[in-house]
Amino acid sequence: MLILLRLSLFATHPSRVAQHAYHPSLVKGPALSRRRHLLQPRHTFAVHMSGSSSSNLAMESLAPVAKSATCFCGSLEVIVAPAAQPVSSSICHCANCRSLSGAPFLANVLFAKPDVQLVLSKTGGAPPSNALIKQATSKHVSRVRCAKCYSPMLASLGEARVVLPVALFSKSQVPDSWKPAQHIWYDSRVMDVTDGVQKFRKNFGSEKCSDIGESFPEEDAP
């Protein structure tokens, strides 16, 4: 990689320096030409960087990084693997999510279980059982909270999937792939959400409806 650096002897444009410092009425003939020549930014230096160094810098800047978030008290930390890709991302309006959060709906992102870790934030070790509150809220869903501050950290969906609340993470950590692609259990909503995102009356793949819950004519269904 070759970087060219051009250094000027003066901060101002040479023509302006020449105009004010070397006015023809004061300096004439060869002396003026010689001094103007000295003002030209003619010094160019080549700085060489090894190919391996520049490529390493580029690779480091493009390498994915893990995303993490802590509970309210900071005792627990959830970590998403750097290369993890979500299985899906939804806004859920089910009664369980609303009752357990106190919110009208929840934005959740679904990952394969190996892509997510729940650890003690200070040591990075596995949290002991008394640091967690586990609650089976349906046949296939078990939710995990911090035992100190009761923050919801994750939910296990069967044996292979983990659901994370998007609200745990800062805006800068939420990529486009985590943005909700659909609303689910929309018939259980407590308010309409007019965002134009597709909506399923029940779980994913069920009948779709409009932002205000109206059915689509079969030929117009998105």
From TrEMBL:
Pfam families, sorted: GFA (PF04828)
Organism domain of life: Eukaryota
Stated family: Belongs to the Gfa family.
PANTHER family: CENP-V_GFA DOMAIN-CONTAINING PROTEIN-RELATED, GFA DOMAIN-CONTAINING PROTEIN
Protein name per its UniProtKB record: CENP-V/GFA domain-containing protein
Organism in which the protein naturally occurs: Chrysotila carterae
Keyword Signal: yes
Domain CENP-V/GFA: 67-201
Record flagged with keyword Zinc: yes
Gene Ontology molecular functions: carbon-sulfur lyase activity; metal ion binding
Keywords, comma-separated and alphabetical: Lyase, Metal-binding, Signal, Zinc
Coiled-coil spans in chain: none
Matches recorded under InterPro entries: CENP-V/GFA, Mss4-like_sf
Signal peptide boundaries: 1-19
